DNA sequence: GCAAAAGTGTTATCCCTACACCCATGA
DNA sequence: TCATGGGTGTAGGGATAACACTTTTGC
């Protein structure tokens, strides 16, 4: 394809970048991709790419996300749009940033579609990032933290069924503080978002834990 | 200028649209502009326009806002980015929406730079809007309402100095409900955001009201 | 029986809500 | 003196925060 696209006025390129969070090994982690081309070749960066002519912004983010993780039904929300004229050395690029939450899993998928390196990094040990991606990541973390307080977003970081201790762990890791077990359970159950599955999980050599399900896992809602 | 801009891949046009709110005559009002050209010629629309090659997104919004209102130092915040491929019939347009808050004024400026009609509409009597602007306006109103609860954004709708009753009026109009005077005053003063100017405003035939100033009017901050 | 995580209540404090009257002024 | 909006306090109920022991299981 050597076709050219012509416009009477200058048009910036538009991309989406996705901040993909998950929790594993007791830490909040971020999905990064090692760039295979200039600029910033060899530097870690957020997954993302150019907007196709006939897709909506969220479709673009979803497509890019799936190309990197092969994951379906991942929670995805628009974060902010970054348009500093200098943010990409090649040309003017406006990037619509999204963030995504991948549920806790035993085997985190990282298979990239091509030979590029893909890896989960703990938020407190991030490598240097390309472009203005540090800024995007910081904003996403701030948003996640504050949404935890007034929405049911935490369940997007949990699998279909989970124990109350696992919910508490999500809150503790994202907020980076220990919480009181009894108070936490009172609060979280009072919200009416949890349904007891009636099943138990027998884990190690200790009392089994009740398994719960989020009443509406498909939509994040305001609470209180 | 008959110059053409060429790209190897299709690039959408990028615009900003601004949802400009103010309060007057006891109602939340929105600044609208009657379109002078197709598409949607003669229909009311949000102020906004194309991103220039060397300006940041917020600069673009600020510039468009100033061209319509001649106002400086207006609070401006990015809202959301709209990119439905069908949202503009001419070409693919991605619009970064902002919202702006204009303080209560006696003489609201509406002088457009050119001959276009510019007008403030009460939110409960909006005319039909061009493009997807209804959607943008609804989202902005929702955002304003929720930010009122956890930030000091209300002071952006007030002049330099103001009475407690005026603050209460802002809350009542945006939230569309009456509030208890004593409880409101206790809450708002407890936040530590208000500074007593020591001056009084003598208004009508009643006791004069104390005038207050927002401690940090230049930055909107989280409260609680 | 012992280690390890699950589960469970009470009390003191703070915050929110409901509610009604006096004050200072201009006409 | 009257009409108008400005200004003030208290009491009851509900939410929040601090705090420790028993239960169930696997080994």
SSE layout:
The structure is a homodimer of 224-residue chains.
Chain A: E1 5-7, E2 13-24, E3 27-34, E4 44-45, E5 48-50, H1 57-69, E6 75-82, E7 93-102, E8 118-122, H2 133-150, E9 161-162, H3 164-175, H4 181-190, E10 194-201, E11 209-214
The structure holds a DNA duplex (27 and 27 nucleotides).
Low-confidence stretches of chain A: none
Q: In the residues of chain A, how many domains can be counted?
A: 2
Please report the two chains with the greatest interface, counting residues with C-beta closer than 8 angstroms to the partner's C-beta: A-B, 29 and 30 residues
Q: What is the strand tally of chain A?
A: 11
CATH class of the largest domain in chain A: Alpha Beta
Pairing-aware structural class of the strands and helices of chain A? alpha+beta
Oligomer: homodimer
Strand content of chain A: 25-35%
N- to C-terminal separation of chain A? 54 Å
Please report the number of helical segments of chain A.
4
Q: How much helicity do the residues of chain A have? A: 10-25%
Mean pLDDT of chain A: 94
CATH topology of the largest domain in chain A: Nucleoside Triphosphate Pyrophosphohydrolase
CATH homologous superfamily classification of the largest domain in chain A: Nucleoside Triphosphate Pyrophosphohydrolase
Order of helices and strands of chain A: EEEEEHEEEHEHHEE
Main β sheet profile of chain A: 7 strands, mixed
CATH architecture of the largest domain in chain A: Alpha-Beta Complex
Structure description:
2 copies of one chain form a homodimer. With 224 residues, chain A is of the alpha+beta class. Chain A has 2 domains: 120 residues, Alpha-Beta Complex (Nucleoside Triphosphate Pyrophosphohydrolase); 62 residues, Winged helix-like DNA-binding domain superfamily/Winged helix DNA-binding domain (Arc Repressor Mutant, subunit A), CATH 1.10.10.10. Helix content of chain A is 24%, strand content 30%. In chain A, the strands form 2 sheets. In chain A, strands 2, 3, 4, 5, 6, 7 and 8 form a 7-stranded mixed sheet that branches. In chain A, strands 9-11-10 form a 3-stranded antiparallel sheet. The longest helix of chain A has 18 residues. The first copy, chain A, is elongated. Chain A starts with a strand and ends in a 10-residue tail after the last strand. Chains A and B meet through strand 1 and strand 6 of A and strand 1 and strand 6 of B. Strand 1 of chain A pairs antiparallel with strand 1 of chain B, so a sheet runs across the interface. The structure holds a DNA duplex (27 and 27 nucleotides).
């Amino acid at each position: 394809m050597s076709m050219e696209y012509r416009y009477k006025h200058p048009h910036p390129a538009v991309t989406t970048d996705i901040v993909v969070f998950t929790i594993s090994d007791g830490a909040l982690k971020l999905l990064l991709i090692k760039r295979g081309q200039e600029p910033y070749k060899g530097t870690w960066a957020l997954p993302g790419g150019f907007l196709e002519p006939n897709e909506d912004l969220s479709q673009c983010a979803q497509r890019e996300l799936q190309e990197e993780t092969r994951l379906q039904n991942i929670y995805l929300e628009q974060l902010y749009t970054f348009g500093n004229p200098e943010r990409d050395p090649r040309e003017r690029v406006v990037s619509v940033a999204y963030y995504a939450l991948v549920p806790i899993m035993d085997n985190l998928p990282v298979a990239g579609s091509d030979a590029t390196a893909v890896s989960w990094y703990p938020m407190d040990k991030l490598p240097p990032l390309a472009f203005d991606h540090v800024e995007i990541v910081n904003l996403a973390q701030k948003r996640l933290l504050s949404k935890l307080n007034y929405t049911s977003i935490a369940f997007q970081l949990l699998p279909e069924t989970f124990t109350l201790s696992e919910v508490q762990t999500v809150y503790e890791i994202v907020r980076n503080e220990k919480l009181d077990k009894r108070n936490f359970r009172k609060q979280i159950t009072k919200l009416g978002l949890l349904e007891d599955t009636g099943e138990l999980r027998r884990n190690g050599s200790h009392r089994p834990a009740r398994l719960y399900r989020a009443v509406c896992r498909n939509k994040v809602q305001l609470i209180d």
